[in-house]
Every structure is written in C-alpha cells, then in structure tokens.
TrEMBL record:
Keywords: DNA-binding, Transcription, Transcription regulation. Belongs to the LysR transcriptional regulatory family. This is LysR family transcriptional regulator. Residues 1-59 form the HTH lysR-type domain. The lineage of its organism: Bacteria, Pseudomonadati, Pseudomonadota, Gammaproteobacteria, Pseudomonadales. PROSITE patterns: HTH_LYSR. It comes from the Bacteria. PANTHER family: HTH-TYPE TRANSCRIPTIONAL REGULATOR, LYSR FAMILY TRANSCRIPTIONAL REGULATOR.
C-alpha cells in the first residue's frame, strides 16, 4: 500500500463527503478507492470513516488522523516546493487573541494574502491554551511570559499597558492622581481559567513591580469580558494600550495614572520546533514582526 496515496485519498473523501466524488476528483476507479481505504484502516487498526447510504463522515479517530494527514501532505508539498523555487502554499493554522486579530492583524491581512496568494489561512481567535502538536496548529500569538521550552518563541513587540476605568465609575469614585489615591477604589479582576491565577493592578517602580491589592466585585476570565465589566462601571483595569485606544478616543473609557505605568507586556509568536523550516510559518511570522513594529500598527511605541 502506498501510504502517501492512501492519505491523499482519505483526505479527499473527508473533504468531498463521499467515495464516488473522491474517486472522480482523483480520476481513480471507485473500487480502487474503496480497497485503499480498507487497507489503510487495516494497517492503522482503527475505523476511519462512518459510512451510510447518504453520506460518509470521519470517526473520532478519523477526524484526528485527517488533521495529521492534511499537515503531513501540506508539509510534503511545501518541501518539494523548496526545490522547485515555488511560493509558499497550503494551509496555515494560527491562533491569536481576539483583540490582536480584530484590531491589528485583520486590518492589514489583505497585504499578506496578496503577497502569498497560495497560503490558505485558518485563524482561531482565543486566549485559551492551545496544544499545537495535538491540535495541528502551526503558530500561536500570545501575550505574557512564555513557559513552554518545547516551542520556538519569536518576540513581536513589547506592548505598553494603561490603567483605565469608565467615566461613570470615575465620577462615582473620583479620578486617582497617585497610587495613594487608590484607597477606596476597586478593580475588575482577571483570572486564568487554566491555572486559576488572579491578576490585580501592577505598577512599574524603577526596576521593581509594585502590586496593589484592591477589592473587587466582578472577576472574569477573558480579555473581552474584562473590558466589558470595566465599561459597565465595575472598577479599574489594566490592559494593553492598543486594546482600549479607540474606546479612550470615543470617551467610553478614561485613562488614569498616566505617570504610574504598568509593566510592559511581551507579545510573542510561538511555534513547534519542527515547524522552523516551514516557509509558510516563516513568512507569516516575519510579516507579523514587521507589522507589529510599524508606527500605524496600533501598538504605542
């Protein structure tokens, strides 16, 4: 059995939803497609496809195998393309925080897709931890310190952070002019749904970071919910400047304590070590580095 051909046939069946359509698209006899899938299932020792009179769909094992096949076939095509001198092509799966995607990446993305029209982007927008190997994700963009030594980390930008609150909250509690004025204020608390770690207010004081513990009424575990609670008047928040710049300009949020800034926050692109030679990953991350360094990117430099 030609395993590469078997993987190609299997992915085509999943993509098209049937044996006959896959056989026609590959210009193969339908009987040959059926035999090849039976051989592949016997070789793997699992059932890959649910077959009914109306449709064909992958089993749970089949869905997991499909993702790996797509990645492997794409890598094979890319490796051959290196010697043909062709442009990067194939599917590139990335994941990034929703705000980074919405406010920074997508407004500039047409530039990237015009430059690399053969790359098909699949973009997830989330803050959740992603198992890049198991989920078949090529690259993630994340804020904060990187703790996984198995991943290659490419710095994108050091983001300025600001402290802000809603105008209604500040009218009720007063506008703090110094850290000593924070007595009597409250925060919206951010917590990690994975580690359970909770975040209050932090301020850079020389080479040290000063933590300010304030009471809270609402805690959230997403960046969008964090700002929504702030806009609803539940307290002070600290967030990257790009995330609230438009809201501040519109007067829906107000920056405070401009002389007492929070620590800067790293934004990093992460990808598995075996993806270092992938031209799709390389050109995308190179583009992100350039984008984040531009004056008009949305990040305050």
């Amino acid at each position: 059995m030609d395993r590469i051909n078997a993987m190609l046939v299997f992915t085509r069946i999943v993509d098209l939803g049937g044996f006959a359509r896959a056989a026609d698209s590959l210009q193969m006899p339908r009987a040959s497609v059926t035999v090849l899938i039976k051989q592949l299932e016997a070789h793997l020792g699992v059932q890959l496809l649910h077959r009914t009179t109306r449709q064909v769909s992958p089993t749970l094992d089949g869905a997991a195998y499909y993702q790996r096949c797509v990645s492997l076939l794409s890598d094979l095509e890319e490796a051959e393309g290196l010697f043909r001198g062709s442009q990067p092509k194939g599917k590139l799966r990335v994941d990034m925080p929703a705000a980074v995607g919405r406010l920074v990446v997508f407004p500039a993305l047409p530039e990237f897709t015009r430059r690399y029209p053969l790359i098909e982007l699949e973009v997830g927008l989330s803050d959740r931890p992603v198992d890049l190997i198991r989920e078949g994700v090529d690259c993630v963009v994340r804020g904060g310190l990187t703790m996984d030594d198995s991943l290659v980390a490419r710095p994108l930008v050091m983001m300025d952070q600001v402290t802000c609150a809603s105008p209604d909250y500040l009218q009720a509690h007063g506008v703090p002019q110094s850290l000593e004025d924070l007595s009597g204020h409250q925060v919206v608390e951010y917590f990690s749904s994975v580690s359970g770690k909770r975040y209050g207010l932090e301020f850079q004081a020389g080479d040290e970071v000063r933590l300010i513990d304030l009471p809270k009424q609402v805690s959230v575990n997403s960046a969008e919910g964090y700002l929504a609670a702030c806009m609803a008047g539940y307290g002070l928040v600290q967030t990257p400047h790009y995330h609230v710049a438009q809201l501040v300009r519109e007067g829906r949020l107000q920056e405070v304590l401009g002389d007492c800034l929070p620590p800067r926050l790293a934004l990093t692109a992460l990808y598995p070590q075996h993806r270092q030679l992938s031209s799709r990953v390389r050109v995308f991350v190179d583009w992100l580095v350039d984008l984040c360094g531009r004056p008009g990117s949305g990040f305050r430099h």
